[in-house]
Amino acid sequence: MTELRAYNSQDKLDILFGFLKVLLFVYLFLISIDLMGIAFKSSRDTLKPLLDHATSNPFMGLVIGIVFTSIIQSSSTTTSIVVAMVAAGTLPLQNAIPMIMGANIGTTVTNTIVSFGYIGRRAEFERSFGASIVHDMFNICATCILFPLELYTGIILKTSIFLETVFEGVGGFKFISPLKIIVQPVSKTLAVFVSNHYIILILAFILLFVSLSNIIKNMKGIVMEKIEHVLNNYLFKNVLISLVFGMFFTTIVQSSSITTSLIIPLVGAGVLTIEQIFPYTLGANIGTTITAILAALTLGVSASMTVAFSHLIFNIFGILIVYPIKRVPIGLSKFIASFVAQSKTHFLIFVIIYVLLHIVPILFMVFS
After folding, report:
1. Residue 236 burial (10 A CB sphere; 0-12, 13-18, 19+)
2. Whether the Cβ atoms of residue 100 and residue 311 lie closer than 8 Å to each other
3. pTM given for the model
4. Comparing C-alpha atoms, which of 324, 323, 246 is closest to residue 289?
5. Which residues of 246-269 are buried (b: 16+ CB within 10 A; e: fewer)?
6. Alpha carbon 172 to chain centroid distance?
7. Which of 78, 92, 322, 330 lies 20 to 30 angstroms, CA to CA, from 276?
8. What is the distance in angstroms between the CA of the first residue and the CA of the last residue of the chain?
9. pLDDT for 141-150, tens place per residue?
10. Total count of domains within the chain
């Protein structure tokens, strides 16, 4: 009994230190966002013409969002950077929304890589691969519908502006203002000490990547050990519970890649089905928008709050439109998985197409 109590005490201590480390890295994340805002404001005259040109074509904005997020595998990072650029006035609000849509598509590479672990076992590989790309299929379907709709009606921008005015009207920014009080003394001191806005921007990027990766790492260590049991036994028997948990868990971990990758082995093993995990992936899409909202609240600029809301609105509209026709993304996932799992040749064809889908946009972006 003594050994058991000692083990439990140590375990609780490790969890406490883990949460303290998470709080530290959240603070560093907020500082990185504020530093980024300072750097973008200082270099506004240089960056604004370049960004205006690069994102003036909405399709190019979409491509930039896909490519950048595919490289760094974090839509939270992409949207946080976009929020900072909008707040600094270096990126027009309407140009930012296609980039946000692209970020949703680009963040799902990790899931596909996880499924490759089952490549030697055909049945398991087919199930896990289908589960890994159902997130892609949803994001692609949502973008195919909402991207042209946004171009012609501006529905996401208008809804986001409306939400921003509602929250501003009830004093939302004033209520969150303690974040600025806590963060700005440190960020402004660093900015004065460094002085060069390019170095400030590099420092901000380093802090952003380090803080987000460590938030993910530490939260993973705290909650992952028991989560598979909970997922398996309690959270996939009801669509609403599954969706809410996907949203809640991703809000905590701040990585939809992790929360969706976690369930792929369960589908590969035949414990869960693609139909069961689909609502969970939709909830993960909503949960990953919290980072941008937190970044916008730190900056306290109405335009940055609007672009953060646009990420949330895009995912909510996507769910409302795509979920009723869920057979389409689920059917596409199963069809592609069945094709890829049939033979090594089919798998090679998929890999070539997958690589080209990422290389062609990059070449298009460079030559444009």
Report:
1. buried
2. yes
3. 0.72
4. 246
5. bbebbbebbbbbbbbbbbbbbbbe
6. 24
7. 78
8. 69
9. 999 999 999 9
10. 1
